[in-house]
Design a protein that fits this description.
Layout: H1 4-46, E1 48-49, E2 70-72, E3 79-83, E4 90-92, E5 105-107, E6 112-116, E7 129-131, E8 136-139, E9 153-155, E10 160-161, E11 177-179, E12 201-203, E13 225-227, E14 234-235, E15 249-251, E16 256-257, H2 265-268, E17 274-276, E18 283-284, E19 298-300, E20 305-306, E21 322-324, H3 334-343, E22 353-355, E23 373-375, H4 398-404, E24 413-416, E25 420-426, E26 433-439, H5 446-457, E27 468-475, E28 481-488, H6 495-500, H7 510-529, E29 535-536, E30 545-547, E31 553-555, E32 562-563, H8 585-588, H9 595-611, H10 626-633, H11 638-641, H12 653-673, H13 684-699
Parallel strand pairs: 3-5, 4-6, 5-7, 6-8, 7-9, 8-10, 9-11, 11-12, 12-13, 13-15, 14-16, 15-17, 17-19, 18-20, 19-21, 21-22, 22-23
Antiparallel strand pairs: 1-4, 2-3, 24-25, 25-26, 26-28, 27-28, 29-32, 30-31
């Protein structure tokens, strides 16, 4: 007789026999997969040079899922993301990356990878995003990328790729973003590209492709951006393109396109914000229906063969900021009808640039428009006619910027970020040095950053804000958009350099640090409490704090700034918000930017200034942050966390006590500013008051 207990044991034993082989296989497969990923990453590292230490954490001291730039799945611990843009990496791309079978994103843009793109990438069937832009890859586009059938985003821009666009690309049916900009591709646009029916953005600028635009591209019903400037294209623009009603950016500049534009162009492409067809051989009337494109911001039709009446009603284009119609022949209809179009510009209050030279337009440009620069006809004496009625700053050209920076020479490069480079230079009209911030417009968000920064500088003035001298919005000698901001040069560099650079042999003393913190708090108090509307800086960190000859701090870089309380898309909850380590935790959860977010960033910056430790240092992890590090020290060991360059031996015990009280008060301010809950953080006005009190106490120390 078998007891119930015996039956239970037999059942468990039988269940184990059934389950064990499967479990064992799963564990073994997971282990083998992890080991395969580990070896692939080590191979990736062995193929490249790493001059700036981006891969310093890639060693046996930690699991590869914790290595810099690597992310893994929560459960299977397989590599799903490699994200190493703008890290100065050099060398070739290891074919063993093809063994990372769970990889969903490979982003290596803006480095110096060279050689061919390994065909082994075709093994990555789970890959969604492949960014290899701005490297030195050569050879052809691998045909077996077609096996990456889940691919949605593919950027191979700014490399040295040759050959034609392979037919296999058309197998990537989920592709929504494709960029080949600035390569040496030939063979034209193959008709099979029309099979990529989910396409939203297509970029192929500056490739010697040749050929015609195939009518099959009219299948891209979801297309928003089409940019194929300088591609040696000829023939006419297929009528099917005008059916792409969602288009916002349509650019075919500098080709050999012929024919006319349909009269219904503007009625069919109502969502256009940017229409650029300059430097072609287009002819006929400029469609009056362009008046219907009420969202149009940028219109470039210069250097074509357009003729006849200019009947666009610019009064409907209230958002237009750039109009270029030069070198056409609008000779029909007489002066009165041409005057109608000029007069209708009176409502274009956002217009910044107007080009109407050599196109037979007569009349007076309304003084109500918001011009900062214009190209008109040449006067008989060779002088350019007046360019602006309300110019605020001295405007400079690309040629002047080029000359000022000695051709953007490395010797004049004083700073570099993901979306810009900063050069030292001297403009013709002034012997003083200036700082020239050149935007990398190929980087997504750079153009928006330029507009935002211009908007911010237009309305703010404070002794602790970086002074802007002028701006440049032009084109370079290759016809590419060029945008730069020119600032007052800060000879003592950034706060980051003073805190962390080995190049600075001297260090900041305590008084200098407190004064710098007061300067920053003063600037934030102005932005938060004295500006209408309130301005949130959005990226307070040491590298954005510049120091003048007298070590006075100036807050710069308003590329992420937000204006609160206005109906604008600036305040949406998507997009880049600050810098890792300094951005408040609520931004990572999708919260809108607020002044309390700036206070959090300031709190982290204060703790960094006083401790000499960056929030991203290796000692900090999920269990220990810079905030917690300082909070714990407030209990009884404040001196132990203070930067050694700050602590100075005092000549009396009373001074030593006062000094420690001042240090404790300062750290407490930083901790109170960087509390996780936004509602519990200090108001910046109170911060400024407390810091002024600390400085007063330090000044009263006995000598």
């Amino acid at each position: 007789m078998i007891s119930l207990a015996s039956l239970t044991l037999i059942s468990i034993f039988s269940y184990t026999l059934v389950i064990f082989p499967t479990t064992f296989a799963t564990i073994t497969g997971s282990h083998l997969g992890n080991e395969s990923d580990h070896m692939a990453l080590l191979s990736f590292k062995s193929f490249i040079g790493d001059p700036y230490g981006a891969l310093a954490s890639w060693n046996s001291s930690s699991h590869f899922c914790k290595w810099g730039g690597v992310s893994c799945g929560k459960h299977h611990k397989r590599v799903t993301v490699i994200q190493l843009e703008s890290e100065g990496l050099q060398g070739s791309l290891s074919p063993h990356v093809g063994n990372l079978s769970f990889l969903r994103m490979l982003s290596l843009g803006n480095n110096s990878f060279e050689g061919t793109i390994p065909h082994e990438l075709g093994r990555l069937s789970r890959l969604r995003i492949l960014y290899l832009y701005q490297n030195k890859f050569n050879g052809v586009i691998p045909i077996n990328l077609s096996s990456c059938y889940n691919l949605k985003f593919l950027s191979l821009a700014r490399n040295k790729l040759v050959g034609s666009i392979p037919v296999e690309i058309s197998f990537l049916s989920k592709l929504i973003f494709l960029s080949f900009n600035y390569n040496n591709l030939t063979g034209g646009f193959p008709p099979f590209l029309g099979n990529l029916t989910l396409m939203k953005e297509f970029q192929a600028i500056k490739n010697p492709l040749g050929g015609r635009i195939p009518h099959t591209l009219g299948r891209w019903k979801s297309l928003r951006i089409f940019n194929a400037g300088e591609c040696n294209l000829h023939g006419t623009i297929p009528h099917s393109i005008y059916n792409l009603s969602l288009l916002t950016n349509f650019s075919l500049a500098v080709n050999q396109l012929t024919g006319t534009l349909p009269p219904t162009t503007g009625s069919m492409l109502l969502n256009l914000r940017r229409l650029v067809l300059r430097d072609n051989q287009l002819s006929g009337l400029l469609p009056m229906s362009i008046s219907n494109c009420s969202r149009l911001d940028h219109l470039e039709m210069s250097d074509n063969n357009f003729s006849g009446k200019l009947m666009i009603d610019f009064a409907n284009l209230k958002d237009i900021s750039y109009i270029a119609l030069m070198n056409n022949d609008f000779n029909g209809g007489g002066a009165d009808e041409l005057k109608f179009s000029i007069d209708s510009m009176g409502n274009c209050t956002k217009l910044e640039k107007l080009g109407i030279g050599n196109c037979n337009i007569e009349g007076v440009v309304p003084t109500t428009i918001g011009l900062v620069y214009a190209w008109f006809k040449k006067k008989k004496n060779g002088q350019q006619s007046q360019s602006s009625t309300n110019e605020r700053f001295l405007k400079v050209s690309y040629d002047q910027i080029l000359k000022a920076t000695d051709g953007f020479s490395q010797a004049n490069l004083i700073g570099q970020g993901g979306s810009c480079s900063v050069y030292k230079g001297i403009l013709d009209h002034d012997p003083k040095f200036v700082a020239v911030k050149v935007l990398h417009l190929q980087i997504r968000g750079a153009h928006k950053s330029f507009i935002t920064e211009c908007e911010a500088w237009r309305s703010i003035r404070h002794r602790n804000l970086l002074k802007i001298i002028t701006s440049c919005s032009s084109i370079d000698f290759q016809g590419n958009d060029f945008k730069a901001l020119v600032y007052e040069f800060m000879p003592n560099g950034s706060l980051h350099d003073w805190l962390h650079s080995n190049a600075n042999t001297s260090r900041l003393n305590l008084f200098q640090r407190i004064n710098i913190l007061i300067d920053i708090a003063s600037a934030l108090d102005y932005l938060h409490n004295q500006c209408l509307p309130t301005i949130v800086h959005g990226d307070i960190k040491p590298s954005n704090i510049l120091l003048d000859n007298d070590m006075v701090a100036h807050v710069g870089d308003f590329g992420l700034a937000k204006f609160l309380g206005i109906n604008s898309n600036q305040n949406n909850s998507t997009g880049v918000k600050g810098t890792i380590g300094y951005a408040p935790p609520e931004y990572g959860l999708g919260s809108k930017m607020t002044s309390s977010g700036d206070v959090y960033s300031f709190g982290i910056l204060l703790l960094e200034v006083m401790t000499g430790k960056k929030p991203t240092d290796d000692i900090f992890n999920e269990d220990l942050s810079l905030h917690k590090f300082a909070y714990v020290a407030l209990l009884d060991q404040i001196i132990d966390i203070i930067d050694s360059d700050v602590v100075v031996m005092q000549n009396t015990e009373a001074n030593a006590v006062k000094m420690e009280e001042c240090l404790t008060s300062t750290i407490r301010i930083g901790v109170s500013c960087s509390i996780e809950s936004p509602s519990q953080r200090m108001n910046i006005s109170n911060v400024l008051h407390e810091l002024l009190h600390v400085r007063g106490s330090l000044q009263n120390l006995e000598v």
